[in-house]
Amino acid sequence: MPVTHLDSLEKIVSLSKSRGFIFQSSEIYGGLSAVYDYGPLGIELKRNVQNAWWKAMTQVHDNIVGVDAAIFMHPKVWEASGHVEGFNDPMIDDKQSKKRYRADMIIEQHILKLREKGDADKADELQQLLDTSGTRKGLCEDLYDIIMEEEIRAPESGAFDWTDVRQFNLMFKTHYGAVTKDEDDVIYLRPETAQGIFVNYKNVMDTARVQVPFGIAQIGKAFRNEVVARQFVFRMREFEQMEMQYFVEPGTDGDEYDKWLEKRMEWHNNLGVRGELLRAEPHPEDKLAHYARAAADIQYKYPIGWQEVEGIHNRTDFDLSRHHEYSGKKMEYYDQKEQKRYTPYVIETSVGLDRTMLMILCDAYREEEVDGDVRTVLKMHPKLAPTKVGIFPLIKKPELKELAHKIEKELKEDFTVLYDESGSIGKRYRRQDEAGTPFCVTVDFDGLDDNTVTIRYRDDMKQDRVSVDKLESVIRDRIKNWKPE
Ligand code: GAP
Questions:
Q1: Does 354 sit in the ligand 1 pocket, CB within 6 Å?
Q2: C-alpha 295 to ligand 1 mean position (Å)
Q3: Domain 88-169 belongs to what topology?
Q4: For residue 176, how far is its CA from the centre of ligand 1 (angstroms)?
Q5: Is the CB of 350 under 6 A from ligand 1?
Q6: Is the dihedral angle over the CA atoms 26, 27, 33, 38 positive or is it negative?
Q7: Residue with the nearest Cα to atom 15 of ligand 1?
Q8: pLDDT, tens digit, for every residue of 385-397?
Q9: Span 20-45, average pLDDT
Q10: If you measure from the C-alpha of residue 355 to the centroid of ligand 1, how many angstroms do you get, rounded to a whole number?
Q11: Ligand 1: distance of its center to the CA of 375 in Å?
Q12: CA–CA separation, 146 vs 149, rounded Å?
């Protein structure tokens, strides 16, 4: 059967809207860019991903516990973390179209074009300049010089009419409480969930009786005023992170970092996405963030190219030491057995929930030619599928509907199910294929005599006749033993 995989993000954007996975925020008012809402299918998928992550972190590890910290935090947190000073992107505006761009991205796109044209020497030379930007006149001026010297034009208008390059802090700022709006009331929407873990590190140690090495996991919203945000849920201004900070003894951090990178790759593979589209990319040493001793991206090959879905970082004792310095509270750990005191190092695993969902949707998408027709199907892992079972009476006869509702009621205890009696059976199957529903159960007249039904599988469209009493175990077995195509 001829199969086409996803070749553009637009198809996923369109399916996400038409099937109720993801909607543009405030769409009736023209939408809010880079902010999205999850619909009925989207929220089920999202919860399944969250649960898979939470289980992989807290349930299977005796030494990892969870927290749920508030989004608002004391403003000093962001001074200590370095975000007030350094969480910036270099931006530049096209004066003609009034569109704003990231200066480094404009240069990267230009380099890509040079490579496509076969001008590898020039591309390498520019890449070298880009990699060392910030070392000559400062980042903004270096990037501006490259854009001017190369006469790089604005992607949309084609104009060569730029403003200067300026640093733009990505944190959303607002004022706290009903007092005058001066700088003393400034509060930020958190740009990462990690700091909520660091500030609770002592509380957790004092209450959960954990000993180094131990981890703290959290799922929550983060906010970044991204300069460029035009890639659906890949780059949003409000998004969700699933982060875990693993506190280790200095000296063991190298091994722990390797272990977590491997574990996290395994988790992504276990989501059922195609292994050949996943890779781990270490950051070169001269590109590491100010707090990191080592870092790697786990990348997926989206239709927009290889992109980061998760970051694994060795953050050293940077955050705990800075919080010690800024709060005056000691962040040390006392190892009673060894009778020594130290500030733990932190291995961080930080995955974007929305980017994970986008990866799952992109990976699952197929167009298959079936009997001269094209069916669109989402072949995602059944454990993640928003609806597990579609239940259909063959036709709208009361006795078939009654048995179908009885099965629906029984299966509901264990699975998300959807009862549907409208349209032909073929149409009902197709609707569920597009929603990624792995099993459909059809109740017909034979079933009234022998208590059997037809179960149809999404992936190969094969059908089996099974006893109603066996349905639950057949579905469970299939979910457990599923493998990606
Ligand atoms: N605490 C470390 C940290 O926040 P990061 O690499 O900036 O590291 C971690 O972000 C993950 O959060 C990324 O791998 C990505 O999946 C997700 N993420 C970051 N910015 C995002 C955005 N604007 N929209 C959607 N997801 C984003």
A1: yes
A2: 13
A3: Herpes Virus-1 (3.30.40)
A4: 26
A5: yes
A6: positive
A7: 352
A8: 999 999 999 999 9
A9: 97
A10: 9
A11: 34
A12: 5
Instruction: Name the β-bridge partners of 451.
Output: none
Residues 6+ apart with CB under 8 A from 416: 44, 386, 387, 388, 389
Strands 389-393 and 417-419: parallel
pTM for the full model? 0.93
Q: Give the domain 3-80+173-362 fold.
A: BirA Bifunctional Protein; domain 2 (3.30.930)
The residue among 36, 27, 2, 31 whose CA lies nearest residue 361 is 36
What distance in Å separates the CA atoms of residue 274 and residue 262, rounded to the nearest whole number? 17
Structure token digits, residue 206 = 């004092």
Residue 57: per-residue pLDDT: 98
- Is the domain defined by 387-480 classed in CATH 3.30.70.20? no
User: What is the identity of the amino acid at 155?
Assistant: P
Q: Can you tell me the mean pLDDT for 101-122?
A: 93
pLDDT at 38: 98
Contacts of residue 481, Cβ cutoff 8 Å, sequence gap at least 6? none
In the structure encoding, which two tokens stand for residue 234, read together?
């890949």
Residue among 88, 190, 346, 355 to mutate when testing ligand 1 (max atoms within 8 A of CB): 355
Ligand 1 atom nearest to 243, measured from its CA: 1
